[in-house]
Design brief:
By secondary structure, this protein is mostly helical. The protein is built from 15 helices and no strands. It has 2 domains: 143 residues; 119 residues, no CATH class. The protein is elongated.
């Protein structure tokens, strides 16, 4: 009798259909997939050597950087030619092959040069370099493809450098205003970055579970776990789509906090505990991304 009860319990525990019937994320499907039309900003940028990378990490100081400026002049000349290309795209088959650090470092070196030439009174050269850094950042943020979140953050980092230079008063404000008037930063980029982040996370999670031949049990429900990821993505997209200046996204903050603190008795004995543990590892509040986007949006759009 006890054996029969135990057997029934084991079967129910491990084979009862506890899981959600399907993953509900049709609204989070990536919208676009654009194929590169040839050489673009990314594919033609010169290589950032380790020496140049160390220079990119420095803050501007006319005395310390004069030699470094001279040593990177050829690099900057090549970068300026690349940035004249009409668009940016890294279309590597494997996104991990996209060297995003080079984009960030190139932007920083351009802005160091802009500050140097402005300090020397060569405003024309300084303005050319400022314009190039601005175009580089905006080309990343406004690309046609659904971009990865890390890619969007690199674009924001370049624009943040442009903002810092603008606030130092080294360049003519009318020139800055005229340059900014060439661009508009909308919500499409940050929304597509959140959408792509969810899809990347979903793909990796399901790939691991398929490799390990995971099936639904009381403790682990794959579809329900991915649906948790989808729900968080929707909250963060809703926050991103709201007008800048809207109150902080308390809803997603509470959602994140709930699953960060998953190790408690209530959760340990609850359905999909293992799935919640997985979610607690990958869950992150991305509200700061929206804050950074809004800082850039206000700067670019002048709103």
């Amino acid at each position: 009798m006890l054996f029969a009860v135990g057997l029934i319990g084991f079967i129910a525990w491990n084979y009862f259909p506890w899981d959600d019937k399907e993953i509900l994320d049709a609204d989070l499907t990536p919208i676009t997939s654009v194929i590169s039309k040839g050489d673009n900003i990314y594919t033609t940028l010169p290589l950032v050597t380790e020496e140049f990378r160390s220079i990119a990490r420095k803050d501007f100081d006319e005395g310390l950087l004069s030699q470094e400026i001279l040593s990177t002049e050829n690099f900057v000349a090549s970068a300026l030619l690349s940035i004249q290309k009409p668009y940016y795209m890294c279309d590597a088959t494997d996104f991990s092959d996209c060297n995003l650090a080079e984009l960030r470092d190139t932007g920083k070196i351009l802005l160091l040069h802009a500050q140097y030439y402005a300090s020397q009174g060569n405003n024309k050269k300084a303005e050319e370099l400022y314009s190039a850094a601005l175009k580089l950042g905006m080309s990343i943020l406004t690309q046609e493809n659904d971009m990865r979140l890390i890619e969007y953050l690199v674009g924001l980092a370049v624009i943040n450098g442009v903002i810092e230079i603008s606030e130092k008063g080294m360049l003519n404000q009318e020139f800055i205003d005229n340059e900014l008037a060439k661009y508009t930063l909308d919500k499409n980029g940050v929304v597509s970055a959140f959408r792509q982040e969810y899809n990347d996370l979903k793909e990796v999670t399901l790939e691991v579970w398929n490799t390990e031949q995971v099936h639904s049990t009381y403790w682990l429900q794959p579809n329900q776990t991915v649906n948790l990821m989808a729900e968080l993505a929707r909250m963060q997209i809703a926050y991103a789509e709201a007008p800048c200046g809207s109150p902080a996204n308390i809803e997603s903050e509470k959602f994140v906090d709930e699953y960060r603190n998953v190790l408690n008795f209530k959760n340990i004995v609850s359905q999909n505990f293992k799935g919640k543990m997985v979610f607690s590892v990958v869950v992150a509040s991305l509200n700061t991304v929206v804050v950074k986007h809004c800082e850039a949006e206000v700067f670019i759009n002048g709103e």
